[in-house]
Amino acid sequence: MSFSSLVLLFVGSALINNFILSRFLGICAFLGVSKRLETALGMGAAVTFVMTISGAVSWAIQRYILVPFHLPFLQYVVFILVIATLVQFLEMVIRRYSPSLYEAFGIYLPLITTNCAILGVALLVAGSDYGLLETLVFSVGSAVGWTLAIVLMAGLREELEFADVPLSLQGPALSLLIAAIMSLTFMGFSGLVPAS
Amino acid sequence: MLSSILAASLSMGLLAVAFAVLLVWASRRFTVQEDPRVELLANLLPGANCGACGFSGCSGFAKAAVEGKAPADGCRAGGPGVAARVAEVLGVAAPAGVTRQVAHVFCAGTQALAKRTGEYRGLPDCRAAELVSGGGKACTYGCLGFGTCVEACPFDALTMGPEGLPVVDERKCTGCGICTQVCPRGVIQLVDAGRRTFVNCLSPLPGKLVRQVCQAGCIACNICERLCEHDAIHVLGNLATITPELCIACGQCSAKCPTHVIECRREEEAGEALPAGAGQAAS
Amino acid sequence: MFAAAFVERITNPHHSGLKLPQQKAATAGKAVKRLPPPERLIVSLWQHAGEPCSPLVQKGDRVIRGQKIGEARGLGAPVHAPICGRVVAVEPRLHPSGLWIPAVVIENDGRDSFLPLDRSFLGDGGSPEEMNPEGIRRLAREAGLVGMGGGLFPSYVKLTPRDDPRPDFLILNGCECEPYLTCDHRLMVEETPTLLWGARAMKRALGVSRVVIAIEDNKPDAIALLRQMVRGLPGFEVRVLPSLYPQGAERTLVRTITGRVVPRRGLPADVGVVVHNVATASALGRALLTGEPLLQRIVTVDGDAVAEPANYWVPIGLPVRELLKAAGVDESALRQVILGGPMMGTAVADLDVPVLKGCGGVLAFTARASPVDEAGPCLRCGRCLDACPQGLAPFQLARLVAAGRLDQAVTWGLADCVECGSCAYSCPSRRPLVQYLRMGKAAWREHPRPAVRTTLPGTPPTGQLGAVSNGIPGAQPRALPDRGTSEPVNQEQEVIPQGAA
Q1: Domain spans, chain A
Q2: Which terminus of chain B has fewer Cβ atoms in its 10 Å neighbourhood, N or C?
Q3: Residue A196: its pLDDT value, please?
Q4: Is the pLDDT of residue B167 over 90?
């Protein structure tokens, strides 16, 4: 595995196959926690943490338990178990060290448990032939891409807060339109890597 | 077949135990001692997050109250009822003398009665209009009528009346006082709910000048002071002023006021001192 | 062309200014006219930054010209009787700010006696260079001198040199960058000797080595005359500046002339520069030469409602209505009256307000010249960014203020706005940007006005003028149409003539 292919993997997972804007995974939290830049960043950090560790742990479980014992049908159950545990763990840590962030997350922190982006990473890793290093790069790249998307969205929505939005477009309507336009622009990244 | 069931159960069981151990350790290690009263209080409060208490939202107030940084009657929107329950939770004596307060508009200068000198064409906001030669209303103490208070009210208790003065819905008003803060002229003030007499003018100018600018202003003629048998109304600094504790709302002064600036509500009209918390229940 | 504009922006991040329609031709070439003696003057006791004066006279008193009728409390400047006559009232009167402020109403009795100021403390020397600096300051205070460009800041304070940094530059502001106004132009042409006498005294009081008289290039006669007159005066210099708005704004002027940048929320004195208006210098010269306090000033009367646009010598306290009558204004056609220039002046709602010491112009417009424009939504075109002499982002500040995010607006530089009105003028959507900014500044300062409302007449409003950097509280910048029409327009307010409605 050469360095350049790792870079490509990172860029590909972060920008080209961005989890929110081209795979459309993890939309719930994307729309729910993107009202303030600060909370969006926090959510991004939390997702990065969970995604990276769950990606690695899932990879290990897949490789050393599920495959040797011919149990790939347990994938979903085991991965959800891993994610749920990590989220619980993270919740306790955040509550201890950053109560304001904890309050800002509200329901969305437990919701990471059912965030399909994280399960998505685990499943994509399991379905691939990545080694540990590639798994980590892929997980981190996906998480960075997810964070990037939600932070951009939060920046836009903070601006929107003091814009004169026509009544018919206020609230979720405009948020979804913005997400759509962002998605279109992210399609432009597919030109980054020449088709081979 | 059996081996695969066994393998599945065993691997799942072991993983579950491992994760359980991790979580148990984490919950011991990262435990947070939180006062259960905070949550109790947060549920008691109106939940409008109006900020009138000076803390960030209702949860902020709840936390401050438990820590002793906020008084039990600090929630202005909640009124005396909430104050009593907060005091109960905190285990302190119920704050005495707290009555429900509501906003009142101290101006009777409707579009028909108050003279206008110019037509203001700028930003439709009282705070901006006030900075331009007084915003076009000849009286510089009266309501400008652009509805900044109406927009600011978090409880929907203010509406702009047909005559260019805001109207307070006393059932919805919680007395949070946000309207009093945004009004650039201080025309809206908080009064005790159930009060029945008001002098709806704030102009301290001599009667001669008030007459020039408004037909509904207090001209300090002293008729009310002479009529009152209860010593409840006095002209102080060119402005009739009521002492609510002494006023029995007999309506004498209101009937004889030459500019009809004294408002006297009949008993059934007066916003009663509603049971605490009724304000937000209604909304 | 774009490349040039880009280079300009890179090399001079603080934009040089706007080219406004000048509108000065009608008055610039005419000699200043005298008015017939006024019948009645309303001398406001609040004509300076600080608290209103306490009256020294009562109803029924006789006053003579030059007599002090109001004494400053703390920071401030006294006011004097501009005519001989009888005091008919000392009572609150409508002030151009829209507040009721105590004023002394004097009825002319036709006599002509004059009480000059005591000048004995100036020292024995005849020329300003030999005068006692403390004496000059004392005379400036006694003469009731304030910044006559509209700032109304007591001049004696600005004639007191700071210890750190010692001032080394005195700038006399003769830019007069607002359209229509030519009062300073005429003053420089007609009052040159008193102006220079005052300027020399200012130089002496401050102990500075250099005096720069800054004039925009649209006043060639004033430039030529002053150039000739300052010859032989050591340290004096006439500097010609391009006619751009807001060239005359203090911060812009200091930057252009000295290259020094006045720090955020600072004063020119922080970089060793003192800026005075030429009219203030002239008034000081007059006080030194004749002992006459500030009793009158030159006022430009112009606008399409004015039959005889010209500059007039106006006694302080003359009701605007009288001035307009003398200039041939038909009140029935009147739609809008602005005190000061069209960019930063105050739209008045009542014509009975008096002329103050800082009022350089009275502009009267008919309905034809003041069409109503509805403000549209912000287009994000960025013209206000280019126009702002302070390098701020007015559209963003306005949005922040509208959303109530004052703290964020302040970090974006809300407090540095000088309210020059360039942004509103440039806005193609005609958004009242300056109004938003003024509103935000007022709220951020926890504006003291509501407190004033509850005080009784006679009790002074506190601190209102002191906090405002460049004008009386009512001063309101507004947009001018830039679509090639001739008349600048006040967007905020118009005057419905009384009796017409």
Answers
A1: 28-186
A2: N
A3: 53
A4: yes
- At C374, list the tokens: 């509805």
* Domain containing residue B68: CATH number: 1.10.15.40
- Report the run of H or E that residue C296 belongs to, with start and end: strand C296-302
Q: Which of A54, A71, A98, A101 to mutate to test the interface with B (most CBs of B within 10 A)?
A: A71
Contact C495 B202 (CB under 8 A): no
- What's the confidence (pLDDT) of residue C464? 27
DSSP letter for each residue of A83-125: HHHHHHHHHHHHHHH-HHHHHHHTTHHHHGGG-HHHHHHHHHH
pLDDT category of residue A1 using cuts at 50, 70 and 90: low
Same domain, B85 and B105: no
pLDDT of residue C204: 93
Query: Which regions of chain C carry the CATH code 3.40.50.11540?
Result: 121-290
Contact C364, C329 (CB under 8 A): yes
CA B169/CA B271 separation, integer angstroms: 9
Question: CB–CB of C493 and B238 under 8 A?
Answer: no
Category of C19 on φ-ψ map: left (φ > 0), alpha (ψ -120 to 50) or beta: beta
Helix H, strand E, coil C: the string for C112-132 is CCECCCCCHHHCCCCCHHHCC
Q: In this structure, are B199 and B127 located in the same domain? A: yes
B154 part of a folded domain: yes
Q: Do C491 and B132 contact (CB within 8 A), yes or no?
A: no
CA distance C281 to C145: 9
* Structural domain span for residue B83: 36-90
Please report whether residue B6 resides in a domain.
no
For the entire predicted model, the pTM comes to: 0.76
- 3-state SS class at C40: strand
Q: Smallest Cα–Cα separation from B128: which of C452, C440, C451?
A: C440
pLDDT digits 0-9 by tens, A49-64: 889 988 999 999 999 8
Q: Looking at beta carbons, which residues of chain B come within 8 Å of A75?
A: none
pLDDT, position C481: 31
Q: Which residues of C touch A164 (CB under 8 A)?
A: 377-378
Dihedral sign for Cα C57, C60, C64, C66, please.
positive
Q: Which residue has the higher pLDDT, B272 or B240?
A: B240
Residue B283 lies in a domain: no
Indicate the DSSP class of residue C456: P
Nearest CA in chain C to B142: C453
Asked if omega into C246 is within 30° of 0 (cis), the reply is yes
CATH class, domain C121-290, is alpha beta
d(CA A163, CA A151): 19
Is the domain of B74 the same as that of B115? no
Count of structural domains, chain B: 2
Local structure of C297: helix, strand or coil = strand
- For residues B194 and B126, membership in a common domain is answered with yes
Q: What is the CATH number of domain C38-116+294-365?
A: 3.10.20.600
Mean pLDDT of C22-48: 92
B chain contacts of residue A93, beta-carbon cutoff 8 Å: 26, 30
Q: In terms of domains, do B55 and B125 share one?
A: no
Residue-level pLDDT at C288: 93
User: Average pLDDT, whole number, for chain C?
Assistant: 83
